[in-house]
Write a structure and sequence with these properties.
Length: 570
């Protein structure tokens, strides 16, 4: 639609004698179809032209003669409404989508700019949480969207592999650890130790002191402690890698918190030189009272570093290494205040690029009752949730007697697609709940619904049996659904840009749901043989198949950007 917006902006600009850049940003889609395809609200230039918006609309109307691709112009109060010639829009969209295929909507908006996307960031020696899953899914989608728009992307998994909890863990492992259990099921064993030490600590205050001493030793580089810590870290990372493989997610770097330890002295020097450090109850802090925020702790009274200290060092390191245009942190909204503090301290340290750092927050994920039943002890393991989802998908395939060459593959693709889509179906900041019936509803607001629509389209195209042309006679596409579909396809590139600007993959999810909704109505509408997609009229069938193929291309592209696979048969 961007192209048409530009075109209309230029015509208005010429008629009104103002720059097109003052017009274009205000051109919008009217609330109902009868009002046309695009509208310009004349009050946006009323002050500049010193006339009432209604007068401007009338005057512009008289001055502009509609020319292809514009069919009709109408003044409606303060608005000037434009209707496009259907055949022009349809022909344009079809040739563009067919030509660019999966690259449709690719831009070079991001050329020469680097975006650092930090996501997932689970904590070692702890189970991969359902919140880390949401971060992983949103972050990976944003990475693909930025790449599509021509940005250079650096993806980072800021693994939680340092901190006082490792003092506890080292202490617990030395006392109660079991090498063979550690090797067999590291995350579960380490988590058990973690739970145990918390219980013991309550009873015995000395244990807390001993754990703190262990962490001190680790920070001071004690080799035996480091060796154990390294094995916890390697074993955990190996388990996480399995989850990433299933989700099809990769990182350019998995330098976790520990990577920044040797960079902290420099960070502290900058803090000190900027006069930001003060003492409070023997700890070193940055006071943020002036900014209505609690202080940021830099060093504890026992001289060990903190999460925040490591984040400051990481941000400085990354700016130097990648010279990013933007850096985003995909982390739950529970840490919103923390990130405001972090960015404020970076700003106070004199780094103007602090303004390029963004916290991309997301809401809580609740598990439905059925899912909670996969608990092992007190905790739900993500692997179990994924495995169960795949199993259920497999059952649905069997119950519906879907005749598939490779049902296991489809069960995996659709099961994982369901999990991924559940994380992306709603706006980031909303809380969501995981519920199998909803996630696996092939007719509803779900990943399987999109995948199923894709497979159905592939089946129509297979049935057509002939080569699908990249162009067609648009005059043969006169059904209202056909125009609606073409218009939807035309806005896809705009949707991608919006998704990148707002760090919001959900724009793509809802776009795809709407596109499939339109297509499925189109598919089901036929009443007579001429009416169906594979119409008894050869020319019409050819044109409809061409449009259908464009829907397939865009759906495939969108699913890929979100991280879902697009099976051709379901
Ligand atoms: N590991 C942290 C957690 O599980 C998330 C890390 C977020 N990233 C950061 N740079 N602080 O809560």
């Amino acid at each position: 639609m961007k192209k048409y917006k530009n075109h209309i902006a230029e015509i208005i600009a010429r008629a009104a004698g103002i720059g097109a850049e003052k017009i274009e940003p205000f051109i919008e889609t009217p609330p109902s179809e009868e009002m046309g395809d695009l509208a310009f609200p004349c009050f946006t230039v009323a002050r500049h032209l010193r006339k009432s918006p209604q007068t401007i609309a009338q005057e512009l109307l008289n001055k502009i003669t509609p020319q292809d691709p514009i069919e009709r112009i109408e003044a409606d109060g303060a608005y000037l409404n434009f209707s496009l010639r259907h055949a022009s829009l349809i022909a344009d969209v079809i040739s563009e989508v067919s030509e660019f295929s999966d690259d449709y909507g690719k831009r070079d908006t991001g050329k020469g700019k680097t975006v650092v996307v930090e996501y997932s960031s689970p904590n070692i020696a702890k189970p991969f949480g359902i919140g880390h899953l949401r971060s992983t899914v949103i972050g990976a989608a944003l990475k693909r969207i930025f790449l599509h728009l021509g940005y250079d992307v650096v993806s980072i998994n800021h693994v939680g592999d340092w901190g006082t909890q490792f003092g506890k863990l080292l202490y617990a492992y030395k006392r109660w650890g079991d090498e063979s259990r550690l090797q067999a099921d590291p995350v579960e064993h380490l988590y058990d130790l973690y739970v145990k030490i918390h219980q013991e600590e309550e009873k015995n205050k000395d244990i807390a002191d001993a754990s703190r001493a262990e962490f001190r030793k680790l920070e001071d580089g004690d080799s035996e402690s480091l060796k154990l810590w390294k094995s916890f870290s390697d074993l955990s990372k190996r388990e996480f890698a399995q989850i990433y493989r299933m989700l099809g997610v990769e990182f350019d770097s998995d330098d976790g918190e520990s990577f920044y330890i040797d960079k902290i002295p420099e960070t502290e020097k900058i803090l000190r030189d900027s006069g930001l450090l003060s003492e409070s109850r023997e700890a070193t802090i940055v006071d943020l009272e002036k900014f209505d925020m609690p202080p940021m702790l830099i060093r504890k009274s026992d001289d060990t570093t903190l999460y925040a200290t490591r984040d400051l060092a990481a941000a400085i390191y990354r700016k130097r290494k990648y010279d990013f245009h933007k850096m985003i942190y995909v982390v739950g909204v529970a840490q919103s205040l923390y990130f405001r503090q972090l960015f404020k301290v970076l700003e106070l340290m004199g780094f103007s690029w602090a303004a390029d750092c963004h916290h991309v927050g997301f809401g809580w994920v609740k598990l439905g009752d059925e899912m909670m039943s996969t608990r092992r002890g007190n905790i739900v393991f993500l692997e179990d949730v994924i495995a169960k989802t795949i199993e259920r998908t497999r059952k649905i395939i069997e119950e519906n007697k879907m005749d598939l060459p490779d049902p296991d593959r489809v069960a995996v693709d659709v099961g994982i697609g369901a999990v991924i889509f559940a994380d992306l179906a709603y706006k980031r900041d909303s809380d969501i709940s995981f519920d199998w019936d909803k996630m696996l509803d092939f007719k509803g607001y779900s990943g399987p619904y999109l995948q199923y629509s894709h497979a159905r389209i592939c089946s129509v195209l297979r049935k057509y049996g002939k080569d699908i042309p990249g162009r067609c006679d648009p005059e043969l596409l006169r059904l209202p659904e056909e125009y609606q579909i073409a218009k939807k396809l035309a806005i896809y590139p705009d949707i991608l840009i919006k998704a990148a600007d707002d760090f919001e993959p959900q724009f793509i999810s809802s776009f795809l749901l709407e596109l499939c909704g339109l297509f499925n109505t189109y598919y089901q509408r036929y009443r007579s043989p001429e009416d169906r997609i594979l119409s008894s009229d050869g020319g019409t069938a050819r044109s409809r198949v061409t449009l259908t193929n464009c829907v397939r291309i865009v759906l495939h592209s969108g699913l890929k950007l979100l991280g879902l696979s697009a099976p051709e048969m379901m």
